[in-house]
Amino acid sequence: MLYSIPRYLLTILISSFLFGLHTSVFAKQDNNQITWAGCGITKKAFMSELAKAYEAKTGIQVMLQGGGATRGIRDTVKMKMDMGGSCRMSLPGEDRSELHAALHPVAWDALVIVINKENKIKNLTKKQIRDIYLGKITNWRQVGGQNARINLYIRRGKISGVGYAIRQYLFQDSNLDFVTKSAYKMRSSGPLEKSIEKDRHGIGITGVSSARKRDIKIISIDSKSPTYENVMHGKYLLYRPLYLVTTPTPSKKVKQFVSFAMSKEGRKIIRDNGTVPYKDAPKLMSKMLIYGFDVK
Q1: What is the pTM of this model?
Q2: Angle at 231 (CA atoms; ends 225, 232), nearest 5 degrees
Q3: Of 8, 46, 153, 167, which residue has the fewest beta carbons closer than 10 angstroms?
């Protein structure tokens, strides 16, 4: 009889039943769903289109969230998400949990200088860009533009995908604080891009895959523009890999999605969105530009 069962055992039995009911209900949902979180640039570059194509092909829905590269890595290894997206390498020195992330490169992205479409500037040198970030150049007149203050938009975090890459590319110092009185600190690339759309004197750095889908102007660096061909052949130097993030032992459904992204069909989807698939230019990694040497 029920009253003869010890209370502690009754508690265990009820908890086990409820847990089994909970897991059975959600396991059924999980079979038809993959959760993903990560950097907005990766999301805009190919994930939205890959997710739609994969659902049409398999019936499995890929639920996309933002949150940035750091969230993409850490939420995946902590199993809060099935999979993540990142536009930077893992940084175990910043958080040991990132040691357990498995990064699968699927595409190449370029970092680009973006300004408002009303701005007549077409090119900046690498030195000029460095000096703008360091606060040494503060007026557009100093780089051949009109007499107006430069409004520099930067990413808030040092280890965001864009923020970390900028520090590596331009300064070889991942801990550098940008010294400027005119900096507008943004939480992610989306708000940064939207702000520059509205600010005639704004400038910032974002990913080309995201910038192409905004009403902003992409300018060249050292007279090299970030065209598809220039990125693929390594002629535009500010490039970086875009990753899918999994645990070291991902589930079958996650493995299948990663394989789809790297397949001939997946690469065509990535290519059709103006992004270079990783397998189309594997030699770019050997140049080690994004990771660099002498990076602090």
Answers
A1: 0.77
A2: 145
A3: 8
